[in-house]
Amino acid sequence: MTKEEVIHLAKLARIELSNTELENFTKEMSAILTYVSSIKEMVGDEVISAPTVGDRFNVFRPDVVTNEPDSTTKEILSEMPQTEGRYLVVKKILQSE
Amino acid sequence: MFTIKSLREQFLAKKTTPLQVVEEALAKIKKEDGEIHAFLDVYEDAKELAKQATADYDEGRGSDLPLLGIPLAIKNNILIKGRRATGASKILENYIATYDATVISRLKKAGAIFIGATNMDEFAMGGSTENSAFGVTKNPLDTKRVPGGSSGGSAGAVAMGVVPAAIGTDTGGSIRQPASFCGLVGFKPTYGAVSRYGLMAMGSSLDQAGPLTNCVADAELIHNVIAGVDTMDATTITSDTYPEPKIKEAYTFGVPKNFLTEGLDEDVKKAFFAHIELLKTLGHTVVDVDLPLFEKGLAAYYIVVQAEISSNLARYDGMRYGLSMPGTDLISVYQKTRATGFGPEVKRRILLGTYVLSSGYYDAYYGKAQQVRGMMRKELKEIFKIVDFILTPTAPTPAFKIGEQEDPLAMYKQDIFTVPVNLTGVPALTFPMGKVIRDSVSLPVGVQYIASHGCDSQLFAIGKKVYDDQL
């Protein structure tokens, strides 16, 4: 793992890194990746049917409203960093040329 | 011994009241938690609920609710409506939960009283509580040492004697390892036995909530309250997902001998072999088993968990809730918020997860790890045809000193015995198997019993016989 790779990952993960963090993470992540790479020797290339997490599949429930309207709206709105009335304020996404 | 069972008996016999017990708990926190720091928040208004519970006992309404008036501590990654839910992270420092987790609503319905939120490693990532953004929790048995983690605050709260039980979460050992370090019983249920609705997601395919207690019977009691199908979590299992386990007089235990090598403390090993002898004396059979994949689970775990972390923690972006740092454009708001809000271990794991999921590496890491996971399940299935339980130490060492484990990889290796359980989704119980002496302090070490999917009740049955009955 190189510094450039860590910078790229940080960009993908939307985390700004300090120089010290960059130094440390590059070193530590290399060690961890070397360790977890032992996984490659544990399995061949043969395809094994997709492993599953639990033993339940296709669990459905009726698509109905379960909450009273507005029952938690106030609480959720009050957690937002910036609001305008009942709207969440965010930065502009599309930049004008 | 401070147990739910004994409190219940005293409440029903009018020897003490919920109000008295809750007041004592709050007083104990005031007196001792400045040093230990098991709690992030203390709920002084618990007294009001305790008054109500006291009145309920007085008027004979106590017998129907299994936890009426019982004080509990809750790990701070479990949402309680109207309370701060921080996940021990700066990014959620001022976040107030807008709903109850299913675990919480079920405990409330059973009459439990929450007296506080407990400290943890940030977003449950760690094995020592040192990764909390709000400072480490000290082990009440030796304050120079960690209580384990990530549910270290929950373990500390029970070990201090503030509460008879606390709720933790376990993604790779986060209930069991602190239980081992603090001399407690800890239980990680079968994946899907307990709803994850309202738990801050870390590794969604691994996370389960469970109890830390002083005896197996209490762990069973709490588990039975919080477990069960939940429409809010489609992975919850039903009573017929797995066959009903057989409760027997004598069981067969499998010991993966080859697994008891790397990094295992000599004294822990001695205590473990003494436990094997105890099981034989009690009439059980102990055989050697070979679990080559199970033994290598750690590598697979630290790929799968980082991948799930990087996906799950994408939600903390400074937009809808939590910390939000100003920036010139949208992306800089994200970047600055996450840079300021997350601690080093969380960042490290998100980056690693991003790496193993990125194009070109996905098949080599995540794909392989998922394959190994499937193979591990198969391997276990075969072994459980021969044995009822697999037996390992819970952690390779007793509680280590605060600041002693600086290398992240060395810290990950603490989880060697616990992570295969989460990867395969089976249940596991830990309880103290003995003590080891360090710096002339006697420290507890735990043993882990692993059972097949859905055999949670079998673990409680054997645990009560081997542990509770000897107390």
CATH topological fold name of chain B: Amidase signature (AS) enzymes
Give the full name of the CATH homologous superfamily of chain B.
Answer: Amidase signature (AS) domain
Query: Percentage of helical residues of chain B?
Result: 25-40%
Distance between the termini of chain A: 37 Å
CATH architecture level-2 label of chain B: Alpha-Beta Complex
What number of domains of chain B? 1
Give the distance, in angstroms, between the N- and C-terminal Cα atoms of chain B.
9 Å
The biggest sheet of chain A amounts to: 2 strands, antiparallel
What about the largest sheet of chain B?
Answer: 11 strands, mixed
Give your account of this protein's structure.
The complex is a heterodimer of chains A (97) and B (471). With 97 residues, chain A is mainly alpha-helical. Chain A has helices at residues 3-12, 19-36, 39-42, 73-79; strands at 83-84, 87-88. In chain A, a hairpin with a 2-residue loop joins strand 1 (83-84) and strand 2. Chain B is of the alpha/beta class and 471 residues long. Chain B has one domain (1-471): Amidase signature (AS) domain (Amidase signature (AS) enzymes), CATH 3.90.1300. Chain B is 37% helix and 14% strand. Chain B contains 15 helices and 11 strands. Chain B has an 11-stranded mixed β-sheet, sandwiched between helices. The model of chain B has no long low-confidence stretch (mean pLDDT 96). Classes of the chains: A mainly alpha (97), B alpha/beta (471). Chains A and B meet through helix 1, helix 2, helix 3 and helix 4 of A and helix 9, helix 10, helix 11, helix 12 and helix 13 of B.
